[in-house]
Amino acid sequence: MIYFDHNASTPVRPEARAAMEAALADLSANPSSTHREGQRARAAIEHARAQVAALVGAAPEMVTFVSGGTEGDHAALIGAAWAAEPRGRRVAFSAIEHHAVHGAAEVLARTGFAIGHLGVGREGLVDPAAVAALPPDTTVVAVMLANNETGVIQPLAAIAAAAAARGMRVVCDAVQAAGKIPVDVRALDVDTLALSGHKIYGPKGVGALYIKRGTRLKAFVRGGSQERNRRAGTENVAGIVGLGRAAELARDDMGAESARLSGLRDRLESQLLATPGAQRNGEAPRVPNTANVSFSGVEAESLVMALDLAGVAVSTGAACAAGAVEPSHVLRAMGLPLERVQASLRFSLGRGTTAEDVDAAAKLVAEAVDKQRKSSRAYASKS
Ligand code: PLP
Predict the structure, then answer these.
(1) Rounded to whole angstroms, what are the CA distances from 363 to 98, 229, 269, 301, 368?
(2) Measured between alpha carbons, how far is 193 from 179 in angstroms, rounded to an integer?
(3) How does 190-223 read in b/e, with b if 16+ C-beta sit within 10 Å?
(4) Where are the alpha helices (DSSP H) in 155-290?
(5) Candidate of 93, 144, 148 to mutate for ligand 1, largest count of ligand atoms within 8 Å of Cβ
(6) Start-to-end CA span in the chain (Å)
(7) Where are the beta strands (DSSP E) in 83-168?
């Protein structure tokens, strides 16, 4: 199988798995316990915290462990909105945010918060100037660093500066950026930044939220006083250890791996774009592993199934809700016509990808597109 769906999830690196296995075998006490066994588990968590902090240029105490990207987005958006409630009950998020951010905004909307949006241009970028047009009672703005469908990297530092000038908090979902491009929270100057273990070759069900010193969040998950009262619940020690190791390795490898991946992605894209009627979606700087391409006249969902049978795992950006496939809100927000959105595929490469995979996949995609176009023409001429 040629696996081109790394933006959905990545395999756990052997080093991260080994670290997790050792933690599962050896660290069984509760990290909040004061005895020595508890303190050994605590030390493993603190080591992982420093590893994650180093990946994003933060101090360790600014990192809170959570259960993944979705929880990180909830803790950030809801926590910042609750903390700023005396100043206003309105938040905004970009039109291309992940469903995790939509979900957090829904929680706020249920308790009477107003929700605003920042649009994007055809190239897939949020315009920092749009922040100036937000109503003055907006307290928190959520903008992702790299989009999961197109890979487009957002001008976060400029957005954060525009928001700070208006007294707004900026919460950033960096789930698809971390480990792929250098992320430095000092340069971005956002209030919070979320990342997820399973997108950086670590385990699923664990993530981290950077919280800038001085940024106030009201805890979303409440109970015990773990994570300095920021996130209740006994820590997922093995998961955190795996995330820490994966973050450390991502930082070590990033330069060489990004260069390798962008070369492979460009090679794939140039072959795909040679197919008649193929167009790239997202004309702006992107993370190195992602290509989003539409093939006119095809039905992307069927193409995903045909490619699966042919041995290539890809995806559409679509989310399946109640059995129905929703067209990608990201591509729609970029102003692409519905037919083009429904004819778009995402290819996301990763550590295991080789040039042979790229060439073989490009050929299989061209064949599958051709086959689907021929059969729909045959169907149309019969009916
Ligand atoms: N944010 C983005 C941009 C994502 O791509 C994802 C996962 O697809 C998430 C958040 C959710 O992360 P998790 O699966 O760890 O909850």
Answers:
(1) 31, 53, 12, 19, 9
(2) 13
(3) bbbbbbbbbbbbbbbebbbbbbbeebebebbbee
(4) 156-165, 185-188, 226-229, 237-272
(5) 148
(6) 36
(7) 90-94, 114-118, 138-142
| Ligand 1 pocket, residue 101 CB under 6 Å | no
CA 339 to CA 63: how far, in whole Å? 43
Question: Do 58 and 210 contact (CB within 8 A), yes or no?
Answer: yes
CB environment 303-314: b (16+ within 10 A), e (fewer):
bbebbeebebbb
- Residue tagged 């690196």 (tokens): 13
Question: Which atom of ligand 1 lies nearest, measured to the CA of 147?
Answer: 3
Q: Whose CA is nearest to atom 14 of ligand 1?
A: 69
On whether the pTM is more than 0.90, the answer is yes
| pLDDT one-digit tens code per residue, 18-40 | 999 999 999 999 999 999 999 99
Tens of pLDDT along 93-113?
999 999 999 999 999 999 999
Tell me, using a 6 A CB cutoff, whether residue 68 lines ligand 1: yes
Q: Residue 57 has what DSSP assignment?
A: T
Task: Say which residues have a Cβ less than 8 Å from residue 180's Cβ, sequence separation at least 6.
Answer: 146, 254, 258, 261, 287, 288, 289
pLDDT averaged over every residue in the chain: 96
The residue whose two tokens read 């208006």 is 166
Q: Note the pLDDT of residue 82.
A: 98
Give distance in angstroms: CA of 58 to centre of ligand 1.
21
Domains of the chain: 2-8+254-382 (3.90.1150.10), 14-249 (3.40.640.10)
